[in-house]
Amino acid sequence: MALNCGFVGIAGSGKTTLFNSLSRGRADASQLSGRTNLGQIEVPDPRLDAIASIVKPAKVVPTTVEIVDIPGLTKGGSKLRGGNQFLADIRQCDAIIHVIRCFEDDTVPHIEGSVNPLRDKEIIDLELITADLGTVEKKHERLAKVASVGDKDAKRGTEVLTELMQHFENGEPARTFEINEADRKYLDDCFLLTIKPVIYVCNVDESSAVSGNDHVRAVEPAIKAEGCDMLVIAALAEAEISSLEEEDDRKEFLNDLGLEEPAVNKLIRAAYNTLKLNTFFTMGPREVRAWTIREGTRAPRAAGTIHSDMERGFIRAEVMKSSDFLELGSEHACKQAGKFNIEGKNYTVMDGDIFHVRFNV
User: Fold this and answer.
1) What is the rounded end-to-end Cα distance, in angstroms, of the chain?
2) Could you say which residues of the chain have pLDDT below 70?
3) Is 45:135 a contact under the CB 8 Å cutoff?
4) What is the widest separation between alpha-carbon atoms in the chain?
5) Which run of H or of E encompasses 334?
């Protein structure tokens, strides 16, 4: 499965700069470009490289994350020309990366006249909540007509949606709306924007890359109240690091900033945690490869990630833990140590599994 993350933020927040640093792209960072930019980043995983160092395959293929740089918003921007495209782009994403400006720079004037991360966050939140409110109001109207002729299911639906509309009117996103599983069906076909998981990125200046600054501390309580992940990243510095050709030069730049790793590593970990994703591996002389699945995925569905025929004709899976393989050094050694298992259709694939599928179609 391809993980898809959409970058949103106030115009001038630095989200396109961050997008470019992650994808090594050259998207136009102009506040007026108005274009949606697409990119792809390889997921760094030291386990993949370690497995490859033992197997020595012809090719090593990491799993990837698709990223979408959505044009920067202004207050009320979703209602203007192009606003529908902005909302449609977000609707296609698995997760939202909300970039918040937490830096001062006179050469980059703020579209609202001053740097205020809490206000900027609320502007984006309000745009998405307003769009969701409109969607729910339309469905409420349809259900109310059916409920008026005595349909009990429709009546319950109108009650749930009324509560959700009140939640929106209080400025709260759908992801913080408490609802039992039996009532969730009334929301499923709404494709709500604010139900999507969000990772907040506080974009700071270079000197604040390690400890943040007053702007970060001003917006942090609101982010924590939502229960969302928050990262502090200096996007401009990250862009400069990613432009360096030599790995040693990139490491030296990171060390100068007091950082242990580039932003892409932190952001991907946060995305995997937020979306509850796991990685498993396949290996052979031709290829060692990483694959992404959701937590709790059974063996046949994981096999289908590799190829649909494998899911359709699944017989069994041969499984080793990557930690055991790396410690013992070979598949044969894992078998000798009892660390090589045959698993059936009910097996739940775990993070770090090395997975070989037996199938017949």
Assistant:
1) 22
2) 1-2, 24-35, 72-84
3) no
4) 71
5) helix 331-336
Give the pairing of strands 59-61 and 64-69: unpaired
To which H or E segment does residue 232 belong? strand 229-233
The tokens of 74 are what? 């202004």
Hunting for tokens 């004037």 — which residue is that? 109
The per-residue pLDDT for 87 is: 84
Position 250, amino acid: R
Residues near 294 by beta carbon (within 8 Å), at least 6 away in sequence: 1, 275, 276, 277, 278
Encoded amino acid at 123, one letter: I
Domain covering 128-188, topology: DNA polymerase; domain 1 (1.10.150)
Question: What does the pLDDT look like over 193-223, one tens digit per residue?
Answer: 999 999 999 999 999 999 999 999 999 999 9
CATH tag for 296-359 (out of 3.40.50.1860, 3.10.20.30, 3.40.980.10, 3.40.50.11540): 3.10.20.30
- CA–CA distance, 101 with 5 (Å, rounded to integer): 19
